[in-house]
Design a protein that fits this description.
Residues 265-443, 692-857, 908-1101 form the Laminin G domain. The protein is mainly beta. The chain has seven domains: 27-124, Galactose-binding domain-like (Jelly Rolls, Sandwich), CATH 2.60.120.260; 152-240, Jelly Rolls, CATH 2.60.120.200; 276-440, Jelly Rolls (Sandwich); 448-484, Laminin (Ribbon); 527-685, Jelly Rolls (Sandwich); 692-858, Jelly Rolls, CATH 2.60.120.200; 900-915 and 935-1098, Jelly Rolls (Sandwich). Strands 17, 19, 24, 25, 26, 28, 29 and 31 form an eight-stranded antiparallel β-sheet that branches.
Length: 1182
């Protein structure tokens, strides 16, 4: 271990080669003065087999307290040479300023020895320094009087210290306002005080960590108008100041213009093989033992020091356990342990004093401030053997050192034994004690949580070697909380099989915009996203002579950036705006300026002078555009200024003017003026990103986009479908780095990349072929901790990043989609909804101008058709699909909603089949769902019922030939099916053995007949089979009746009596061959051959309780009718809903946990139908 000055590289003889080639050697260079070092170059020893293959670089100002140079804050080692002659030069990403440089060999040519020629590049570095002793010393700099007049002010300095607390800079301003930079526990805090009497200062920013390491740190405080930028080393935080002019004087007083360099030699215990061995006390020492030291670590556990008790054949261990100091002594069994301190794994320096004298043992942490523990052992605690710090030697069965705990990873300094400091430089020179795997004269601690790589508010914690992100309650997942756990739109939730409900959507995926709670209405063909504000009710405006205008502001349930992003992403948005008036004008005045207006669009909104249903800037209402206003001389109904109630209502559909932010109503102060307004919720549909797709019809075709920037974290997601067995989905290249996702075989997807230290691959294998022409979803993520790949719903495959690897992914080529730059291994098929770091690439627009690529991609039913349930039929659409429920007894977006009705004794639903003379007519007059042939040789019947009635007739089918089919509950609470397929014979009765079906519970019955074979199944019971003796033809079917049968002349006497009683209970999802009579009655009564008598009430009596929080379709009153329904009718509707809406329970999925909020309150509404009802309305409103 010899120190050398550096020498220039040359082709001549020479070079450095130590006598012993091991990892404890180093080459030290004294540059003579502080130098700004920009590059280093290495070469092997001339004419030999001696060269380095990797090494570390250390820098120091004093020759002590070395600091390891790291590229990208991660990579510590530098690749060396591959032979003795070539020169390998590395330019340092950040120049190092130091006088001393130390190179430490890590690996060398295995056929040779350590050999090196070294050259450094740089220039002298000079700067003024000042030393402050932490007492009254300060440096004062007074600016010119008055506020800062320039738009930019900069204060820049560098500092070094061994103390973890103190004021670095203080600025006094007017009105007692002050700003200070203070070091607190090794972090730099920017604090604002509003006055001398103000309480705690306001913390504006906190940056840096471990700044008490006696190395130079660069601080820049930059003021730009109302913003402050604080930079510590390479990390910047931006702060907004309300009154920057109050800061004008910088105070900084008695100083020494030199920099004291106290020498403090530290040790770094790097791993499980690290230990320090020191001699114990001598025989001449007083009885007992005294050991002191300081340590810092991130680990909760680890051995600090141990020694043996030879006389007692015992051991003493002082170690960390759960971040507390613990002493354990073993002498013929365990002696009670001592504890002291807490949270000692915070990365700060902590002092430990261990003393055993005169029968008293004491452990003190941080000079007693962190805790003191005492004990009085009955045996002497002395050591004449060796002291071991951090761990034990690798030799087994050592009697002097046995470690039962984790080894220590961290730093130690200021070691004392018997109150005498330990000379660690002698230890380094092998003149004192022994050691292994130590870094001496440096503390190699790294704060991996400063700056934090945990995104979206994830909480960072760390050990000595790794950091961990706690993503709970953030709405994001992954090793760095990068990827959103929520979908980006209601459209995406729908295609996961969800139905209407409240959902969190994250419009930009992994981007900075937080998730927002919205209501997704999926009851219609179009999926609507509904964004509420604080008043969607119809609200009356009372005239007030003292107030010339009435102004109201609307606060939305989402933040501004969330709201604007949701509008931008949607294909269509609309918001209802209505004004109900009586002698209250709206827009048009004699001079042309409007009486009323509204503000809409981004921010506070822009003034809009048109009304719902008209065009922006037109100063009209919907009736003016349509030419049907009550007074054709005006463009709004309300502008007619009549005494009768009228209204102007319509939808605002121009996204640039949405949402409505506020409303100003002007003509409300005149006697007799009355008005009411309603601004509905914002409703949007269509996801421009979800269906954005391109079809690659050739292997040589591709799309190209600008370079992908995912230096620290990158997530890529898309859907694909193909019939090919391989192809590249995506590729982006750099000089050495690259990123690629490909279909490597018909069952495997591979995500590969290189960030400078060799290719890394993550693979997912599917058990089913992926070239099935169905949509498959790929999600890949790469961050500083790991790379992950997920295919469909298969388990996530992960690959950890190298501990000492590159961070930044450096790409420079174009991004290729569907192929590569070499036009090889191209992809044939469709790629859809491609997103990179939450940003959707517009494949369709690029495909329109690219040969071999077509915009869009049809054929979605092959992937999503299974979402259509209960015989629903999947229908292709240009963007997506639709479930056709016309052949199903169910309704809803996926034909999943049961259609049920409550029946009373007088209720009858009669479905009439074709009359005989209609057989020759065009059958297209009726939908396929309500048409059936006249003669049946088979039936497929299913229904659900809930009743306590016994006996009861559930279903009756008659014919023109006095034949019938009846499904009933007998007086014995059993199900019977009666077939009379021959008018000359008695009905055949098929009795089920299932008992107690009239017990008020929901039962499902399935009846199938094929000629003379009949099967009956009730619920999950076994199927029962029967045989008929008739010919098996049900001729001239006439009608199907649910409930009471009015025409019972053709029935047997006992069945006629039963039919006249009617049915009391619930019938649900009634299906007879291809028709659904109950659905036809409830949903299509105007177009179906259905006759309804008596009360028929639609309900959900046939639904079973759902365990899915999204399963129950919820259609609360979120918006009124879009047309011109009378004001009085609207108010009457609201009156009927008042009781229902007084207490509304809304269950939402809140960040992964179900939360039910109970909202109480009187729903305010207006009922204005004439002067005679005003007193009643006033009571309701008030």
């Amino acid at each position: 271990m010899v120190s050398f000055f550096y020498s220039h590289l040359s082709a001549g003889a020479g070079g450095w080669s130590p006598l012993i080639s091991d990892k404890y050697q180093w080459l030290e260079v004294d540059l003579g003065e502080r130098t700004k070092i920009t590059a280093v170059a290495t070469q092997g020893r001339y004419g030999s087999s001696d060269w380095l293959t990797s090494y570390l670089l250390m820098f120091s100002d004093t020759g002590h307290n070395w600091k390891q140079y790291r590229q990208e804050d991660s990579i510590g080692s530098f690749p060396g040479n591959s032979n003795a002659d070539s020169v390998v030069q590395y330019k340092l990403q950040q120049p190092a300023i130091a006088r001393f440089l130390r190179l430490i060999p890590l690996d060398w040519n295995p056929s040779g020895r350590i050999g090196l020629r070294l050259e450094t590049y740089g220039c002298p570095y000079t700067s003024d320094v000042v030393s402050l002793n932490g007492g009254s010393s300060s440096l004062v700099y007074r600016l010119s009087p008055g506020p800062w007049r320039t738009s930019k002010e900069v204060v820049s300095l560098k500092f070094k210290t061994l103390r973890n607390s103190g004021i670095l800079l203080h600025a006094e301003g007017q009105q007692g306002v002050s700003l200070s930079l203070e070091l607190e526990r090794g972090k730099l805090q920017l604090l604002l005080r509003q006055g001398k009497t103000s309480p705690e200062p306001l913390r504006l920013a906190s940056l840096g960590s471990l700044l008490d390491d006696q190395h130079w740190h660069h601080v820049v405080l930059e003021q730009k108008n109302a913003h402050l930028n604080l930079t510590v080393d390479k990390n910047t935080e931006r702060i907004w100041l309300r009154c920057p002019e109050h800061l004008k004087n910088l105070d900084k007083g008695n100083v020494t213009f030199s920099c004291a360099e106290p020498v403090s030699v530290a040790l770094t215990f790097t791993g499980p093989q690290s230990f320090l061995q020191l001699p114990g006390t001598t025989a001449s020492s007083p009885g007992g033992v005294s050991v002191g030291f300081q340590f810092r670590t991130w680990n909760k556990g680890g051995l600090l020091f141990t020694f043996s008790l030879p006389q007692q054949e015992g051991m003493v261990w002082l170690y960390l356990s759960d971040a507390r100091l613990r002493l354990m002594i073993h002498i013929s069994g365990l002696w009670p342990a001592l504890f002291s301190g807490a949270a000692l794994n915070d990365g700060q320096w902590h002092s430990v004093d261990f003393t055993a004298r005169r029968g008293r043992l004491t452990i003190s942490v941080d000079k007693g401030e962190g805790g003191i523990a005492h004990a009085a052992p009955s045996f002497p605690v002395t050591t004449e053997s060796q002291l071991f710090f951090g761990g034990c030697p690798a030799e087994e069965h050592s009697e002097e050192c046995r470690n039962l705990f984790e080894t220590f990873q961290g730093c130690m300094r200021l070691l004392t034994v018997e109150n005498q400091p330990v000379d660690l430089i002698k230890v380094q020179q092998r003149l004192l004690g022994n050691y292994s795997q130590l870094q001496i004269d440096m503390c190699g601690i790294i704060d991996r949580c400063s700056p934090s790589h945990c995104e979206h508010g994830g909480r960072c914690s760390q050990s000595w070697t790794v950091f961990h992100c706690n993503c709970s309650d953030t709405g994001y997942s992954g090793a760095t909380c990068h990827s959103s756990v929520y979908e980006q739109s209601c459209e995406a939730y729908k295609h996961n099989g969800n139905t209407s409900g409240h959902f969190y959507i994250d419009v930009d995926g992994s981007g900075p915009i937080k998730p927002q709670l919205v209501y997704c209405n999926m009851t219609e063909e179009t999926t609507w996203m509904v964004l509420l504000h604080n008043n969607t009710e119809l609200t009356r405006v009372r005239p007030s002579p003292a107030v010339s205008q009435h102004s109201v502001h609307f606060d939305y349930s989402t933040q501004e950036e969330q709201l604007l992003a949701a509008i931008s992403q949607s294909e269509h948005c609309e918001q209802e705006l209505s004004y109900h008036c009586r002698k209250s004008r709206l827009l048009n005045t004699l001079e042309g300026s409007p009486f009323s207006w509204w503000l809409g669009g981004p921010g506070q909104g822009r003034v809009q002078t048109y009304w719902g249903g008209a065009h922006p800037g037109s100063q009209q209402c919907a009736c003016g555009l349509q030419g049907d206003c009550v007074d054709l001389q005006h463009y709004c109904n309300c502008d007619a200024d009549r005494l009768e109630w009228t209204e102007d209502s319509g939808l605002l559909t121009h996204k640039d003017t949405l949402p409505v932010r506020s409303l100003v109503l002007g003509d409300i102060q005149r006697p007799g003026s009355e008005a009411a307004y309603r601004v509905g919720p914002l409703r949007c549909h269509g996801d421009k990103n979800f269906w954005n797709a391109a079809f690659f019809d050739k292997e040589t075709s591709y799309l190209h986009f600008p370079t992908f920037h995912g230096e620290l974290s990158a997530d890529i997601s898309f859907l694909f479908k193909t019939t090919g067995s391989s192809g590249v989905f995506l590729e982006n290249l750099g000089i050495k780095d690259f990123i690629r996702i490909e279909l490597s075989s018909s069952t495997q997807v591979v995500f590969s990349f290189d960030v400078g230290n060799g290719p890394l691959e993550v693979r997912v294998e599917s058990s089913v072929p992926l070239n099935d022409n169905r949509w498959h979803r790929v999600r890949a993520e790469r961050n500083v901790k790991e790379a992950s790949l997920r295919l469909d719903e298969l388990p996530v495959a992960t690959q950890e990043a190298p501990t000492d690897g590159h961070f930044h992914l450096q790409l420079n080529s174009q991004l290729f989609i569907g192929g590569t730059a070499s036009r090889q291994k191209g992809f044939r098929g469709c790629i859809r909804s491609l997103q990179l770091n939450g940003v959707t690439l517009d494949l369709e627009e690029r495909a329109k101008i690219t040969p071999g690529v077509q915009p869009g991609c049809p054929g979605h039913c092959s992937s999503y058709g299974s979402l259509c349930q209960n015989h629903g039929r999947c229908v292709e659409r240009a963007s997506g699909f639709q479930c056709d429920c016309s052949l199903s007894a169910y309704a809803g977006v996926f034909c999943q909603t049961e259609v049920s009705a409550s029946f009373k004794p007088g209720t009858s639903v009669s479905y009439t089949f074709k009359e005989p003379y209609e057989l020759s007519r065009n059958r297209s007059a009726l939908p396929s769902s309500i048409y059936s042939e006249m003669t049946l040789r088979a039936e497929n019947i299913s229904l659900s019922f809930r009743t306590n009635q016994s006996p009861a007739l559930l279903l009756y089918v008659s014919s023109y030939y006095r034949e019938y089919l009846a499904v009933l509950i007998s007086k014995h609470d059993k199900l019977e099916v009666r077939y009379k397929l021959d008018s000359s014979r008695d009905a055949e009765v098929l009795r089920s053995s299932v008992r107690n079906v009239a017990n008020g519970q929901l039962h499902t019955v399935t009846i199938k007949r094929l000629t003379d074979s009949v099967s009956v199944q009730i619920d999950e019971n076994a199927r029962e089979d029967f045989n008929l003796t008739s010919d098996g033809e049900f001729n001239a079917v006439k009608s199907l009746v649910l409930g009471r049968v009015h025409e019972s002349d053709d029935l047997d006497p006992d069945l006629a009596k039963l039919a006249s009683l009617g049915f009391t209970g619930c019938l649900s999802v009634v299906h007879f061959n291809t028709i659904s009579p109950l659905k036809a009655a409830l949903r299509h009564s105007d177009t179906s051959p259905v006759i309804i008598t008596g009360p028929l009430v639609q309900s959900n009596c046939g639904s079973a309780a759902s365990t899915n929080p999204y399963a129950a379709e919820n259609t609360p009153h979120l918006s009124g009718k879009k047309g011109g329904a009378s004001f009085a009718n609207q108010i009457k509707t609201k009156m009927s809903l008042c009781v229902l809406r007084a207490c509304v329970c809304v269950c939402v999925l809140l960040m992964g946990a179900a939360v039910c909020e109970l909202h109480y309150g009187l729903i305010k509404f207006v009922h204005l139908v004439g002067a005679t009802n005003d007193n009643v309305l006033d009571n309701i409103i008030n």
